[in-house]
Amino acid sequence: MKPGIYVVATPIGNLGDMSPRAAEVLSAADVIACEDTRVTRKLFGLLGLDAKKDFITFQDHNEEEQAGFLIDLVGRGKVVAQVSDAGSPLISDPGYKLIRRCREQGVYVSVIPGACALICALQLSGLPTNRFMFAGFIPNKDKARRDLFNQLKGIEATLIFYETANRIVKTLSAAAEVFGCREIAVAREITKVYEECLNGTAAELIKHFEEKEPRGEMVLMIAPPQKKEAPEIDLQELLRFELRQYPLKTAVKNLVERYGLNKNEVYQTALRVKDE
Ligand code: SAM
Fold this sequence. Notes:
The protein is of the alpha/beta class. The protein has 11 helices and 10 strands.
C-alpha cells in the first residue's frame, strides 16, 4: 500500500457499517492515529483485526505536534490510518490541521468514507437536503447559543448541529425563541437499536423530552426559513410557549419585538390563549 495518511471512517453505532475497504486499510496500516487508543483497540478486537501495531494518540490538543510526527512517518515509507472514536474523522473531530499540512507539503492523502452522523441525520429527517449547513456543536452558554442561532436564522438552508442529550432541552428553548414555529428534527441513536427521528416545532419537542427523558447521541436540524415567514399564522402556538415561561405582558412584548407584530392584536390573542 502506498505510504500516506488514510482518513478512515468507522461506525457510529453499528459494527456492520464498517466497510471492507476500511477494515482492509486499518489492517494494512503501520500506525493508527486515533483519539482514544482504548476505543480504537476495542474496535480492532470487535472486527477481529490484528491490534499488534502502533496506536498513537491524536487529539485536538496535540494535533499540531502529532501532525509533524505523522508526516515524518509517511516520509519514512509508513502507512498511517487516522480514525476518530466513531464516524468520519475531521467532522467535529481532529484531523483538519493534519490534512492541511499534508496538502501544503505534497504528502499523499486518501479517504475511506463511511458513516457520518450529520449526513445520516439529514437523510432521516425529511428536511430539505438540496442545501444544508453543518454548524458543529452548539455552544453551551445561553447567550452564545442565542447569538449563534440569530446569526444563522436567515440562511436559506437546513441547519445541522451536533448536540448532547443533557443540553437538548435548553437548546430547544433557545431555538423556540429564535426560530419560532419552524420545523425542527432531532435524530438520535442513529444506526443503533433505538434509532429515531422526531420532527416538530421546538415547543413540541420540548414537551416530548419533558415526558421522555432525552438520551443518547443526537443531531439537531432546523428547517430553512419559509420564503415568506408568517409568524401570525402560528401566533397562538408562539404565545402558548412564551406564556409557559413569562407573565402575559412580557410574553406579548417579546413577540411584538421579535416579529414586529401589532401589539394590540398579540395582546388580544394572548388573553384568549391564556383563557384556554
Ligand atoms: N465525526 C463524527 C461524525 O461526523 O460522524 C462525529 C463526532 S462528534 C465528536 C460526536 C457527535 O456526533 C455526537 O455528540 C452526536 O451529536 C453526533 N453523533 C455521533 N454518533 C451519533 C449517533 N449514532 N446518533 C446520533 N448522533 C450521533
